Amino acid sequence: MDDSAKKNWWQRLTGGLRRSSSALGGAISDLVSKRKLDAATIAEIEDVLIRADLGLDTAGRIAAALGASRHEAGISPDEVKAVVAAEIEKALTPVAQPLVVDATKKPFVILVAGVNGSGKTTTIGKLAAKFRVEGLSVMLAAGDTFRAAAIDQLKIWGERTGAPVIAREAGVDAAGLVFDAVRAAKERSVDVLLVDTAGRLQNRSELMQELQKVVRVIKKIDPAAPHAVLLVLDATVGQNALSQVEIFRKAVGVTGLVMTKLDGTARGGILVALAAKFQVPVHFVGVGESVDDLAPFSAHDFACAIAGIDS
Q1: CB contact at 8 A, 85 and 302
Q2: Residue 1 above 90 pLDDT?
């Protein structure tokens, strides 16, 4: 990103995380403004961090860092936020990894999974647009054969991005369609194949089994594929995201996360809890509907934005 693009993204990110940063920053300011940073205040700050979905581990580390820094002394809300941002960045740095497309794999197959409403199909469209800008050829597979609307939506993204779409009518066998898509992408020497899948409710075992079947048929053509399995998570679900990651990882071996709808919630801290618990790479975050609202994940920028301080 050039400087103007970085500035533009920082504005989008801070705007998108405003609900999360306001909830967190407001509570910290209320607690710290007129009190010493004693053990009771630190305990209350820890409670605020847990309520912000940051997770017990991270909240505990921040509380310990505050305790070690200036135990009985007065401290400003901004100083507390700086400690919060630094500890969040530490938790997120190991998982802030870009999605790397291996040019020796043609097609580089990316399977995109997630529950209904998480923003899977839109994320695929945005990724297709990004790859096309980077000069890669892209094909889309409309593997969400349960919903005609998802097929139509993917076709629209195909038209927008100049990416061919392999699709059938709703109700056909998803594994068969994906098999055809991988074969077509191979024949055409396509760089990236993005595969949409039906929205799985993670507690419906027969649907998860079908997702596993899709993975098996991909491997029949290329044993190394899918080369990436992205789980798209809706930030507004909060703690429920933890169980989604757990179940999808067991079912299809998730290799990376995309978190969407951070602009629609005060629960953006859940990303920190996910990082601490699972250590799964976070590739992208989304803060809105437009193509530019999905960007590679930066631990530093996210930590500053959620703590409500300048990067």
Answers
A1: no
A2: no
State both tokens at 8: 């533009």
Helix axes 299-307, 77-92, angle to 10 degrees: 150
97-117: string of b/e by CB count within 10 Å (b at 16+)?
Answer: bebebeeebbbbbbbbbbbee
Report the C-alpha gap between 101 and 187 in whole angstroms: 19
Lowest mean pLDDT across 5-19, 181-195, 231-245: 5-19
The two structure tokens encoding residue 202 = 């993670």
- Which residues sit opposite 108 in a β-bridge? 192
> Average pLDDT of 75-97?
93
- Return the pLDDT at 240: 92
User: Which residue's structure tokens are 């596993």?
Assistant: 212
Distance CA 306, CA 53 (A): 12
**Beta strand 138-141 with 165-166: parallel, antiparallel or unpaired?**
parallel
Report the distance separating Cα 89 and Cα 82, nearest Å. 10
What local confidence, expressed as pLDDT, does residue 199 receive?
81
Strands (E), the chain: 108-113, 138-141, 165-166, 192-195, 228-234, 256-260, 282-286, 294-296
Structure tokens at 61: 């580390």
Determine the average pLDDT of the residues in 93-118: 95
Q: Quote the CA–CA distance of 101 and 110 in Å, as a whole number.
A: 9
- Please calculate the CA angle 263-20-12 and round it to the nearest 5 degrees: 40
